[in-house]
């Protein structure tokens, strides 16, 4: 049976401020993305997810939306967006956009109205509470970024509003059916414009405990992580799924379910009779160290939770919120091996822009720090050309990562051994193999420090070997007999049988001789 497109696709995340700058103002834009679609087609990705480009005061760089149905002038216009989608589709690239359902910007007209008075018709579109009996915030919840109360007092009306993130990101009240209808309308607006799907920002945070009780236990007071695993959310997701399913073309949603326990994430895909998200980000592997045994467990739990239909695994090793792989894992060798890992697992991979170049996090001097969450390093602009400013306006919004010239697209494209060409080869091999795209997964015996598995579909077989620590003992048994290395993370040993001892921080894809 043919798999739905999103199960076979490799997604590429574009953080639009930092991808490509067509007008030279130092901030990336939609026309910039459009101008680089050929690059993405050459690279071999199937779909893009574009982080928010909607009008915003940019306190959280677009994750604070002031109008869900327009484009911020810094990124261009709706016409630019339409042209981008048309070109992408012509090149066979699907377009997924970010939908930020859990909160708006405090500049959104809805919030301005809600704040105007206690009896404003939109008051209840947000979450308001009276001060605690002795004064102060209504409960003990803590907001992300500010590490202080998740409540801010509106002096004029004497009540607090809830914000899981910045005070300027008030949480929407999804218990109000008007909010649900308005947010459904946002989905329809973009579906009608031809988008193939959505990445739903912190979507597990839309349903709320009506009592808003104090959180108990250490580390549990942040509403955006670890809590708000609520039945209300599942009901909302079923409604959203029904809306998407009513459109032709398998429109899809991947939800950011920021619960750092894979077993809690799985249920957000729903049941066969009542499906919810098509896919859910599963972040525990993203935060796992580079080590074989913890990774084996991550993979096993993910298989257990996401293999049963209608769930399907996703794999994420980078995004605009975390340190880049080279920085996080500590070396180029590991980041190369991580590419073979990410694209060799069973499930849909999400690749963060710039990982294919092997970029490190930029070192951002104090006076250039702009993000309240300390995430500027992974958001440095993509270097397109060797010479500074690497295809950007001279006044680019963040500094480049070290070595940007050598890590530029122009330079890496010409070097067959580059990171970029490793990714390109992996993507091509994956696209050409049903076993790799959607085949089964079976562990193979491997020495300590090494994980090896076989992917299989319709009699076609591929093997993936990732040496996290390297092996003291040789490979034994005949699981690898008759296979040769088609791709090695460092290019060494290709075309040969797998060596009995392989060093640490290397990975291999094997195919039958
Ligand atoms: C998500 C986004 C992050 C944003 C937050 C608030 O976690 O990935 O960038 O700051 O939600 O919207």
What is the topological layout?
Elements: H1 5-8, E1 11-14, H2 16-19, H3 30-35, H4 37-43, E2 47-50, H5 78-90, E3 94-99, H6 109-116, E4 128-129, E5 151-154, E6 159-162, H7 177-192, E7 197-200, H8 231-245, E8 252-255, H9 262-265, E9 279-280, H10 292-306, E10 314-316, H11 325-329, H12 332-344, E11 348-352, H13 409-414, H14 419-431, H15 434-438, E12 440-443, E13 450-457, E14 460-467, E15 483-488, E16 506-512
Parallel strand pairs: 1-2, 1-11, 2-3, 3-7, 7-8, 8-9, 10-11
Antiparallel strand pairs: 4-6, 5-6, 12-13, 13-14, 14-16, 15-16
The chain binds alpha-D-glucopyranose (GLC).
Helix content: 25-40%
Tell me the distance between the termini: 28 Å
Give the amount of beta strand, in percent: 5-15%
Find the structural class using helix and strand composition.
alpha/beta
Number of strands: 16
Q: Give the helix tally.
A: 15
| Biggest beta sheet attributes | 8 strands, parallel
Q: Please state how the strands of the largest beta sheet are arranged side by side.
A: 9-8-7-3-2-1-11-10
Q: In angstroms, what is the radius of gyration?
A: 23 Å
Bound heterogens, unique: alpha-D-glucopyranose
Stretches where pLDDT is under 50 for at least 5 consecutive residues are none
The rough form would be described as globular
Mean pLDDT over the residues = 96
